[in-house]
Amino acid sequence: MSGTVYSMTGFGAGRIEAVLEDECQLTVTAEVKTVNHKHLQAKIRLPHEYSSLEPAIDKLVRQTLARGAVQLSVDVARIGGDAGVRLDASVARRYLELQVGLAAELADVSGSTELAPITSMMDLIRLPGVIVQSTGQTAAALDAAGPEASAVIDAVAAALEHLTEMRRFEGAAMRRDLENSGQEIARLVAEIATRIPDVVAHHRARLVERVGELSGHPGTTAADLAREIALLSDRLDVSEEITRLQSHLEQLENLLEGGGAIGRKLDFLAQEFFREANTIGSKCSDAAVAHLVVDLKTHVERLREQVQNVE
C-alpha cells in the first residue's frame, strides 16, 4: 500500500480447524514473530510429517515480508479418526535386520557374537521411528493440495496477516516520529542557513583586519594575501552542505510518502544527514551555529535510531 511504513517487529497467530474424511478433527495453530535484522531471515518449525510444506511456507513468508528475522512455528493437533500412536513394523524389521547383519560382520572379525543390543521388545520400541504418532499421512505422502496441507497453509497465512497488521500499526507511529524528526532537522537547517550570512559578515570583517596586518608585514606578497583569503573563504562556505541537507529532506519526505520496504534507504539517508552536519560543524567556528549543529546531530541520531526498525 502506497505511503504505508512497516515496523520490522511484530507477532501474529492463526488458527484453522477442519474435519477430515476419516472424521478426525484437525486443529492447526501457527505463530510468527519478527525482530530487526539487516536482511530477511526465516526460521520455520513444522511437525515432521508436514516438513514437505516448508518450501511453500517459506515462499509465502518472502512474499509477505521484505526484511527482519522471522520465527514461525506450526503445531497440529488431531482428535478422533485414526489419531493416536502406531507401530511402524517396517522400521522395526529394518532395525532387527541391521542388528543381525552387524553382529555377523563383527563376529567374523572378533569371533564373538555377544554384541546384539536389542534383547527385548521394549528395547525395540524405544528406537527412533518405531512408535510414531498416527496422522493418516507421512511427510512423503502428504498431499500438497489436500485438506491437511491447506489447513496448515491457511493457518500460516492468517498468522502472517495478523503480523502484517501489527507491523502496519507500529509503522504508522514510527512514520509520525520520522516526520517529526524530519521537521526538526528542516527547522535547524533553515536556522543555520539564516545564520550563515551574519557569520560570513563577521569573518569578512576579521579577514579585512587580517589582510591589513599581513600587508604591512615584511616579506608578505600578493600571493600570500590571496591564499589567506581563499583559505578563510573556503572554511566558511557551507552552501553545498546546506543544499545537500535540503535535498536529503526532500528524499526523506518522498520515501515516507512512497512507503513500503524503505528501511535500508532511510538508514543510508540518516548517515548522509550526519555526514553533512559534521562537515558544517567542522567548517564553521561560530558559537551560535555550533549549538545549532549539536541540536541537528541530536535529531539526526534520533532519526537514525528510528529507521533501524523500519522494514
Automatic annotation (TrEMBL):
Per UniProt, the keywords (alphabetical) are: Endonuclease, Hydrolase, Nuclease
Per the record, the similarity remark reads: Belongs to the YicC/YloC family.
Domain Endoribonuclease YicC-like C-terminal spans what residues? 193-311
Q: Which GO terms describe its molecular function?
A: hydrolase activity; RNA endonuclease activity
Task: Please provide an example of a Pfam family that matches this protein in its UniProt record.
Answer: YicC-like_C
Recorded protein name is YicC family protein
Instruction: Please tell me the species this chain comes from.
Output: Saltatorellus ferox
Cofactors per UniProt? a divalent metal cation
Q: Say yes or no: keyword Nuclease present.
A: yes
List residues of the Endoribonuclease YicC-like N-terminal domain. 5-175
Q: What is the lineage of its organism?
A: Bacteria, Pseudomonadati, Planctomycetota, Planctomycetia, Planctomycetia incertae sedis
**PANTHER family for the chain:** UPF0701 PROTEIN YICC
